[in-house]
Structures are given as C-alpha cells and as structure tokens.
Write a structure and sequence with these properties.
The chain has about 270 residues and is of the alpha/beta class. The chain has a single domain (about 5-274), classed as Spore Coat Polysaccharide Biosynthesis Protein SpsA, Chain A. About 35% of the residues lie in helices and about 15% in strands. It has 12 helices and 8 strands. It has helices at about 15, 25-45, 75-80, 105, 130-135, 135-145, 175-185, 190-195, 200-205, 205-215, 235-245, 250-265; strands spanning about 5-10, 50-55, 85-90, 95, 110-115, 165-175, 220-225, 245-250. The strands form 2 sheets. Strands 2-1-3-6-5-7 form a 6-stranded mixed β-sheet, sandwiched between helices. Strands 4-8 form a two-stranded antiparallel ribbon. The two termini are about 20 Å apart.
Length: about 270
C-alpha cells in the first residue's frame, strides 16, 4: 500500500479583512498554525510510512473569494499527482498530531473515511449541529440541497442521530477508487458555491458540498472515532489531551490556544518523539 498526506495553507489579502484574532493579524496566526501543523504531519507521515505533500499556492481553486479557497481540498480528487496512492489523507492546517497510531490502518472496507458532524460530542455530552436544533438552519440546508437535486440523508447508526449527514472535512481519508469516481461524478464546485440565492457560508462551504455529493452518488462513507478529529471545545482540557489523536483547533480564537498548547508542550506525544 502506498499512502499520502496532503495539506495546504493559502493566505490572501481577503483573510485580514475578517479582523484580527486577539490583537494579532489573522494571516500571521494562520501561517504560524500551518507551520506547526505541517511539521507535525511531516513527522507523522514518516512514522506511518506515507508520502507528504504541502502547498501554499492555489492549484485547483484560484478564485479570489476568501471562503472559496476551502474547495482547494478537492485537489486530492482532481490532481493526477495523487492517482498513484492507494489512500490519501487530507488534513486541515490547524491540526496537531497527538498519537503514534496509524490512521490508514483503521480505514478499511469503505470509500471515504472521516468524522460526521453528528458524532462530534461536546463536553456536556450534547450535540453540535445547529441544523438539529434550529429549524431555520435546517431549512436552509434542505433548500440548498434541493436546488441541486441532492437528497437530504439523515445520519445512520452507528452514528448519532442527525437530520442531515454532514462530514467534517478537516480530516478525510480517500481511497483511490473513491477519488477517481468523485472526479467523474461530482458536480463542479462553482455550480454549488456561486449558485443563487445565496445562503450562510456554513451552508455553502466545502462540507455540505462534499457530503451532498457523497450521498447523491452512493459513496460508502465510513465514520471513524471522534478522537481522530477532536477539538478542545468539545471536552475538558484534561479529557482532550488524554483522548484526542488529531487535535483540531477550529475557529479563529482557538488557533491562539493551539499556539499556546504547542509552545507549552501540552501534547501527550510530540511528533518529534516518534
């Protein structure tokens, strides 16, 4: 088996228009986090015998829209550079590895592997998805999906109940067969992202798009444990560092915490120790 890990961080002028993060330029914080994550996954790739690829240039998605750059993650599907790999892990650049376990070993008998939003459990044991407790958000998702002829598929056991199956695309493992099928079957992302009427970006971004395409074309989406895509705001700090394998610092303010945790050597297993 030949596997690979892919990450990217593309910072343009639009990023800083969203404001500073706790008094620091947003672009600077993003770059610092990306450097930490890149080093972490580079070490991890060596540990699990995978090739590592990193990009700081838009190859697939060159649109100027600051949110559109999220669709660069589709490069694992469309870039023939990845065709030689049996499995490819895509990981966001606000993630630090906290394990020596091999994620590729648990990704068997399926097409695409990741953590569903419905399986992300908060520290108090509650749910996370706004579409499950806010009717207006749910209807926005339904309307967006129906615009493109995409079925709204509830999550299925063993996943937690949810009105819509949405994959968290921060950590996704794709098989070669799935990538080649997606290249043939997925609708162009621009037809999804720029279609009118517009909705909130949480409805228009890469996660609903990819999830909808997987459901529409009957890909075998296999859920993996939340610990492979865990965030500090889902658990107490003690629980987080004890169980999280991939530590995912989603959201602007949490990236400051990522920097603090890294420089304070909080992680149970540093990639440098592998």
């Amino acid at each position: 088996m030949r596997n690979a890990i892919f990450q990217y961080m593309i910072v343009n002028d639009k990023v800083d228009e969203r404001g500073d993060i706790e008094g620091r330029k947003r672009s600077q914080v993003y770059r610092e986090c990306a450097d930490i994550s890149r080093n972490s996954f580079l070490q991890y790739a060596d540990h699990v015998d995978a090739d590592y690829h990193y990009s700081d240039e838009a190859v697939y998605c060159k649109d100027d829209h600051s949110t559109a750059i999220l669709f660069e993650c589709l490069r694992v599907i469309y870039d023939p550079m990845f065709d030689k790999y049996d499995k490819v892990l895509f990981a966001d650049t606000d993630i630090v590895v906290n394990t020596d376990e091999n994620i590729f070993d648990i990704c068997e008998d399926g097409d695409v592997f990741g953590v569903l939003e419905s399986d992300i459990v908060t520290a108090d044991g509650g749910g996370y998805n706004s579409w499950d407790y806010k009717q207006s958000t749910y209807l926005d998702f339904v309307n967006k999906f129906q615009m493109h002829g995409i079925p709204v598929v509830p999550s299925m056991p063993p996943s937690r109940p949810s009105k819509i199956t949405i994959l968290n695309t921060g950590v996704v493992v794709w098989t070669r067969e799935a990538r080649l099928r997606a290249r043939e079957l997925f609708m162009p992302w621009k037809e999804w992202f720029y279609a009118k009427p517009e909705f909130h970006m949480s409805v228009m971004n890469d996660q609903p798009y990819i999830s909808g395409q997987l459901m529409q074309h009957d890909f075998d989406l296999v859920t993996i444990d939340q610990t492979w895509n865990d965030s500090p705001h889902y658990a107490t700090e003690e629980e987080f560092f004890e169980k999280a394998k991939f530590c995912h610092y989603t959201g602007g303010g949490w990236k400051i915490l990522m920097l603090d945790h890294y420089h304070s050597n909080k992680f149970r297993l540093s990639p440098k120790q592998m």
